[in-house]
Amino acid sequence: REPVSGLEGLSTSIVTDLENFKTHKRGSVSVREGQGVVLLCGPPPHSGDLMFSWIFNEYPSFVKQDHRRFVSQETGNLYIAKVELSDVGNYTCVVTNTVTKTRVQGPPTPLVLRSDGVMGEYEPKIEVQFPELVHGAKGSTVKLECFALGNPVPSISWRRVDGVPFARKVDTRKVSGVLDLPYFQQEDAGTYECVAENSRGLNTVKGKLSFYAPPHLIEKPQDVQKSIDDSLVWECKATGKPKPSYRWMKNGENLEPTEERVQVANGALSISRLTLADMGMYQCVAGNKHGEVYSNAELRVIAVAPDFGSTPVRSQTLVKEGGDVLIECKPKMSPWGIISWKKTAEPLRESNR
Q1: What value, to the nearest 5°, has the Cα angle with vertex 236 and ends 233 and 239?
Q2: Model confidence pLDDT, tens digit, residues 158-181
Q3: Which residue, among 52, 54, 77, has the nearest Cα to 64 in the 3D structure?
Q4: Which distant-in-sequence residues (6+ apart) come within 8 Å of 27 by Cβ?
Q5: What's the rounded Cα separation, in Å, for the pair 206 and 222?
Q6: pLDDT, position 11
Q7: CB-based burial, 238-277: b 16+ in 10 Å, e otherwise
Q8: What helix, strand, coil percent values describe the chain, rounded to 5?
Q9: pTM score, two decimals?
């Protein structure tokens, strides 16, 4: 009742892109009619994501996937739940790099029938199963694979263990060896079960699907120009799961507040009594275990000589004899300086009168 597999002489070194398969032949795989079989692809050294398909005998005759035949996009292996006479022939694994579109094909694997009878019926044996814990990123398409060998050919069905029905975005008409969960969200997290069943029995596998979200900034600091002695408050907020933590950098180095006037709390940076030394390029960094995001903002601190251009002192003020008078002096300057008054070139001093 055990499946048969065949794989010989495959390289295991690591390189970039996609290498060629070894050119020597693979041994034939011999099975009884009615038996299940797994043909191993064994992709060559590569980097990046791959896509797998299988040629049956000669190009362009590719194996068509159905309830009886399945190509795993995780391993590249070809699974035939129950071998029939029409399956006899040569099988060639075709590997494509999804980014560069580079394509290579392996040496053919002959599938032959044994002459010692037909395989009897047996219960499903799940050969393709998803991990016990699968991490799904927010907005991604999560694919769960499940396929079983058996005689009669097992049917594959899926369900959520908590009994929650699948969302309408899941096309249950196409569900067989692969469950597609598009635009993955928090509510899609949970425990999923694959059920393989035929007239001889059933088997199941379960796995937990967890939700995560890399940090995403929703409030960013903006470039600002301040005067000496002013105060600065920059807010930095991000969403994510797990909840992001924050840190600040100044001119490419981690900002470690050494003065009481510089405070960092919950993503916010505040600086009181600004000085020229506070000028620079600041970065807010929000991160969790799934990544980090950065936001840049420049702080400019300016020094301004006293200037009465926008707030001049009134050249003439009328006042009733014996009354009070207020003459305002509000020059624009940074930092704030010393203000003195003169009357007819004579300095004025405070008095009690």
Answers
A1: 155
A2: 999 999 999 889 887 776 799 999
A3: 54
A4: 6, 8, 109
A5: 48
A6: 38
A7: bebbeebebbbbbeeeebeeeeeebebeebbbebeebeee
A8: 5, 45, 50
A9: 0.68
